[in-house]
Amino acid sequence: DLLFNAYGGSERLNVTSDGDWTVETDAAWLWTNNTSGSGNGSVMLNVSENTSSESNRYANVTFKCGGAKAVVTVSQSKKDSLTITPPNWNASSSSESKTFIVSANGPWTATCNEQWLSITSKLDNSITLLVYENTDITNSRSAVVTITCGSATSSITVVQAKKTSIIVDPDSCIFEVNGGENFITVTANGTWIAVSSDPDWLT
User: Which residue among 1, 160, 180, 181 is the one 20 to 30 A from 67 at the CA level?
Assistant: First the structure.
């Protein structure tokens, strides 16, 4: 018996015979370079790519010489299939987790080399990732989780935001009874808004 992967390929089959022989296949996805011979010889068996991700496929190569017959069974693996949903994650700077759906037609593995991101759960059809808090107020950070199912590879791109920072100076103001205005300096690493807790008298 012969086993081919989904990409297909070729295999030489040697024939030992004392007479004229023929060879035939029972599937269109495999064929030989010739269909007959005499005495000892060989044929080249060719197998096309299996583009189906649903199932393996099987066929026979049959050699005949008079009343004698020899059968070679050929098996070909299905095409490896892998899909991740969603394929990316824009995480906040806080520590948080997210679960992704993994659609694969075989066993799969997941790897990530970043210390701030870990794989906390891996089931047959899902994977859960955990990001730790990003304390850097200057830079966001990114990582890639690589998932492999046979020859199929996919990935999850994770981008974690930098920690937000805001400083006001001064942080308190005292006004006279007649009111007035004061300037406050704001230093922030992102977009900010100012909201009064009592807009009736403070704006």
Answer: 1
Q: What is the mean pLDDT of residues 96-109?
A: 96
Look-up of token digits 């694969």: 104
Residue whose structure tokens are 């990582």: 143
Q: Dump pLDDT digits (tens) for 3-48.
A: 999 999 999 999 999 999 999 999 999 999 999 999 999 999 999 9
How many helices and strands in the chain, by DSSP H and E?
A: 0, 18
Record the tokens describing residue 16, joined without a space: 């030992």
- Which amino acid does the sequence have at 45? L
Q: How far is Cα 29 from Cα 80, in angstroms, rounded to an integer? A: 18
Quick check: 148 pLDDT over 90?
yes
Give the span between the Cα atoms of 15 and 42, in whole angstroms. Answer: 5
Indicate the pTM of the whole model: 0.71
* Tens-place pLDDT, residues 182-202: 999 988 888 899 999 998 898
Neighbours of 163 (CB within 10 A): 18
CB 197 within 8 Å of CB 203: no
Judge residue 132's burial from the number of C-beta atoms within 10 Å of its C-beta, 0-12 exposed, 13-18 middle, 19 or more buried.
middle
Say which residues have a Cβ less than 8 Å from residue 96's Cβ, sequence separation at least 6: 130, 131
Partners of 141 in the β-ladder = 160
d(CA 179, CA 201): 9
Do the Cβ atoms of 105 and 122 come closer than 8 Å? Answer: no
